[in-house]
Amino acid sequence: MxxxxxxxxxxxxxxxxxxxVWGYTSFAGIALAVFFAMLAIAFxxxxxxxxxxxxxxxFAVVSTGMYYPQYFQHWGSFKLxxxxxxxxxxxxxGMGSELSLKELATVMKMPKAILVGVVCHYTVMPLVGFGxxxxxxxxxxxxxxxxxxxxxxSGLASNVMAYLGRANLALSISVTAIxxxxxxxxxxxxxxxxxxxxxxxxxxxxxxDTTQVVIIPIVxxxxxxxxxxxxxxxxxxxxxLLSMITIGLIILVITxxxxxxxxxxxxLLVLAILIHNLTGYTLGYWxxxxxxxxxxxxxxxxxxxxxxxxxxxxxxxxxxxxxxTIGLAPAIFGPIMNVSGSSLATWWHGRVPExxxxxxxx
Length: 362
Hints:
Na+/H+ antiporter like fold
């Protein structure tokens, strides 16, 4: 299956190149999307590359949105951007359904590490985002989108990468949960302070929007976990898949809506977001290292700082009335974050944390 999928991917990549050279762009987009999809299927069948498969599917989605935006902006008189919020609430519900009160109780066991993770998350990424938005001199709404990504909490992706990278999964889940629970206060406050010079930010409105998008669905998910987890097995299996599908659909709609703006600033915006993401990993790791944390905890805080809830940023961009401008940075940050996070986690996976080696060799 792996070999066949790789051959099929190679065929579609060649087809994309030829169709692009010959000027058949309407067909080239299909070939590019299928190339990424076939590569994702191939990676799914490889133990070493499996963690990259979802990211490749996101690339297929982005390619589709860039080549065929007209199909994903409106269906008749209905604007597809209206689906972003309910899709995002499904994702947040899925996050809550994966948590349990027992897991949240781990907060009491590692308060220092969690405090450092949350503080780094809500200082490093917002300030770096503000610096990049100012340095690159983007149009105001696109600059505000970079800051918005930095001001959002971490998401489920960081938990997956922590597991793959031999980090502290319990700490990762705790930092993700706490950062999301604090987001209705900290996200609008930081946006007001840092992005106020770029766009108008209504603190209480954004606080309520964040509560609707994050807190209410997560609490509903926690209740689901407590009352029904394990009793409806098909639903337990469906939730993670449903979350991944909705993430793809959100990115598809935002990419389609912002396609023209993305073509204008795409290269510079990708560079700025890559710097933003990698700086988060680096500073998160070394701050915790300087504070004397174990290697596993340093890896965890690195991932928690560098990986943002780009879906929430997309939803808030929509509510701010800028899905095609403010929403561009979140739409790009997600795929970049997944590629870099998967790469970092895969590299770490092959390296046993130092504290683990010491415990085995007293």
